[in-house]
User: What shape does this take?
Amino acid sequence: MKPANLSPKTLSILCVGLAIALGPIVLPEYQVSQVNNIGIFALVTLGLILLTGVAGMTSFGQAAFVGISAYTTGYLATSEQLPDWLGWAGASPWAALAIGLLLTLAVATLLGGLTLKLSGHYLPLGTIAWGLSLYYLFGTLEFLGGHTGISGIPPLQLFGLTLDQGYELYYLIWALVLVAVIVTLNLLDSREGRAIRALRGGQLMAESMGVNTYRSKLLAFLVAATFAAIAGWLYAYTQRFVAPAPFSLQSGIDYMFMALIGGVGQVWGALLGAASVTFLKQWLQDLLPHLLGKSGNYESIVFGLLIVWLMQKVPGGIWSWLSPKLPDWKIKKPAAPGAESGEKLVRRPQPQAGEVILDVRKVTRRFGGLVANNDLSLSVKAGEILAVIGPNGAGKSTLFNQLSCVDTPTSGEIHFRGVQVNGRNARQIAGQGLSRTFQHVKLLPTMTVLENVAIGAHLRGECGFISAALRLDRKDEAKLLQEARYQLERVGLGNYLHVEAGSLALGQQRILEIARALCADPCLLLLDEPAAGLRHMEKQALADLLRKLRAEGMAVLLVEHDMDFVMGLVDRVFVMEFGQRIAEGLPEEIQKNPAVLEAYLGGAE
Amino acid sequence: MSNVVDKPLLAVKDLCVSYGKIEALSNANLAVGEGQIVTVIGPNGAGKTTLLSALMGVLPSKGEICLDGKIETSPPIKEMIAQGMSLVPEKRALFATMSVEDNLRLGSFRFHRRPKKEHEASMEEMFALFPRLKERRNQLAATLSGGERQMLALARALMGKPRLLMLDEPSLGLAPLIVREVFRIIAELRRKGVSILLIEQNARAALRVADYAYVLELGHIAMEGPASQLANDPRVIEAYLGSSGKHQEMLST
Amino acid sequence: MNYQIVMLLGQDGVTNGAIYALLALSILLVFTVTRILLIPQGEFVSFAALCMAAMEGGKPLYIGWLLLALSLAALALEAKERYQANGKLQLKGGDFAFTLYSLAACALLATAPLGTAGKPIQALLTLGLIVPLGPLMYRVFFQAIAAGHSLVLLIVSIAVHVALVGIGLLMFGAEGARIQPFSEGSIQLGGANINSQTLWVVAVSLILIVALYFFFEKTLYGKALRATAVNRLGAELVGISPELAGKASFSLAALIGALSGILIAPITTIYFDSGFVISLKGFVGSIIGGLASYPVAAIGALGIGLAEAFSTFWASSYKEVIVFTLILPFLLWRSLAHGGVEEEE
Assistant: This one.
């Protein structure tokens, strides 16, 4: 491979890998053990970066996860009388790792299962309570040595090698850190990773694209717990001693600080954060007692204030400050794969022309005493565009929400391709071939246009976390990206594939949403005010696109205000006012309807 | 053409608002004279609400906002309230779990250092203006009907004795009879000397009550003029019903 | 376990539970008004208790310096923001109020014979020293980011707590302290001895809860705080500034925290970092209340106090484990009761 072909990811991994390989050669003995600790911290911090920086959740319980695994390892390695059924695990570090992982994941699944469906504050509070609880438990359980802990853990023996020197462990620790970094980078660049990143774009958007947001959150939480568990195993064999203190809530907070200081959105921020916090802490621990004339953990004052300052001034952490100063690798983005690969995603069976796709029967929606939709019936056929219009407050959004299964009708039925769907959720209806856009554009501004659109194809891929981590998903991934690219070219955004979505004009962002919806291979497109805020030329381009889709047999239902846009485009118009249907028919008929004119220009008196 | 008035209460010069990289309002110029009703009409997404939010200081903006001769750039909301600006937002922003009376009391919070008697007196004034609210004075705001909520939002804003009242779509979602009532009250307020900046989708009703009007399209002021003149302008009708010649003829008859 | 023991444990539980309930109310108040989970709530408790102990023991008090440092930081921020807004340095007399107050406090602490002043005066002084920390904390750490993402607010809240624990160690040292009870003796009630300290705690808690109820239901300022919690935009539009609401809710939190600290000082040995665990039990209470309901949070916190007392009897060393694990069934209940997808603000 020529250097010019290296992706920034590969290049950065190579650089760090080289630096790591040289480490023990240039570092003195005591610093090697320091760097070993940094590696262990970085592993935990990496999990937090995925959890907090990418998925937008917070945990202060990572130290407790480290503790579960470290104590498991320590206990299994030292206990003389393991119960018979556990006896086989005593001598094997692999067994200790496996059991430690299993226990950690069990606890994480329980805690995640309880809190991840709730709003953002329950997870951090839950992990704080859990972190404290476990800390007290470690200090109380007699078989774990109480407050004195477990000492005399034998050195780690792997494949007949005894790793008891700092530099021997060094290679193991840093190899694992590097693997974890690669796994994380691979994950982020995959179908599952996009789903996790989509969490920040609003869960409604992700769900409407068929992403099970609860599952994605749990996945991120479990990956973070896994990294913590591996770190715990390494910790036990590096220190050869475990006691409660390093697994306290205070340490959990320290890990969060490492992630924040390093740069919470960036994978390499984990290494940077772990290193800078460790060195700064050591320096302060030497300096402050000297300065204050007393001994104590006064560095916490500095760290606390530093974080406050950081959150106010540089919320992106050191990495965000540093990265613009580094050579720009972004230019060398790899070309989108797949243009040459012939394989395409399988499409769902397409409806016959003229088949009724959506059939709304006598739908009524009440909010308390307010009737927002009253006895509405309408239908959309394949190859037809229906516009729902009406003044603000007429109940169009309420109707739209029910059609996209965000809301459920109080009475009446909604049939999609002959199946009753009211009562299902947005994710289920997405799977059946209904795709939508949003009135207020919902996309991930820092992701590329291509990646944003690929979220739409979520349900058409099947590779999960494992294949993503091991890079076994490339074929599947290529198909997804090819589809995203095809849809972008179809809507006329083919020149913007690798641009950050946030840098597009509003009109282009709306078109991007349509491409994303098309990626799901829908039979029906629901468009929520697609022309709002568009300029004249953009509206014409949008209308042309919709005409093209109609000709290909797509059914389209759009809610719109812009009469000019609607009248020249659609086949039928459905007019609402005060939750009622006031007219329905061909555009020309609607334009002459006195009730419609009145609704739009106000009472004539 | 511009809104030439002797004493502009509010004059806005080159006001711009952006959300990230998207400019929602660009170089808007407008003026409201003392005692005038000025309306801003325009299609959805044109930037009407953005304009009001920037004027109230809820959103940061660029350009000059001149109140009573005092020029400011992106003034904070505190300052605008102190200057006598008041905004009734589209969503009303009532205190749903508090009583009608408490909502009104808090409406005059900016005078919280003044004696209680004064507050009670202005509350009675409001009850005179909105008799329905008096009947419901002890009910929670959440239990009111849509029309009553709009009345309460108006009354709460008036408790702060504003010099300029900014209304964001006050007829939104209200039945025709209540819309008429809202516009009756707007006309009555003008008689009492309150200046009003009105954002409306009900263009005909807004143009009937206003002195001067602006048409906002895609973040630009596309047209302006005396309200009576704009009401008959075919281009205004176009902005609402589309541009094909047919309806213009039909509507102008 | 006999009747006597049940009464004794129940008394313990109610005493601690009442304090947890106060803290739960305070946490909820701050959260609903400002969206900040006030993790440093506990520091108000421990600082107040340690202040009382230092006065009683005639030891020097350094908390005046903390007050002074925060006042100066607030003053500097005020000056900086005015300068950025208007291009000139303008400070009004009122801006110096906190600085002058803290200077006076420092002078008083350095000269007055506090050790012999008697409990009521010591308690008042403690309140006078701790309560201003509330609004100052809001001004210095939170005001600039008040509109930020809730995750940022939470992290800053944690960071302030971490810094304050370190400062607590610096000011009060690592030794724990416990003060003499406010009154000796006990009364007989239904065949059980009720400790007079319990009566103090319960009485003060009840008075405080009634006072808070009165404040929120009957006074304009109380209503203004409620209004901010109900509709932030609406409150801002009628002129209730977020700064005012933030400072007011932080003042109340500091008041409630300081009172809890004074009440708990004769009951438990308090260390510089004890406040956190105490206030976390208030957090558990407010989670039980769904971060929304005051009565449920108070009852939940009382329940935590009782659970703690009774677990001391059965499994003393697992006391904390049991209390913090109690949160799980409530999370399960919330999770099951919760419907579809939650859209974050």
Remarks:
- Chain C is about 70% helix and 0% strand.
- The two ends of chain C are 50 Å apart (CA to CA).
- Residues 26-176+196-273 of chain C form one domain.
- Chain C has a mean pLDDT of 88.
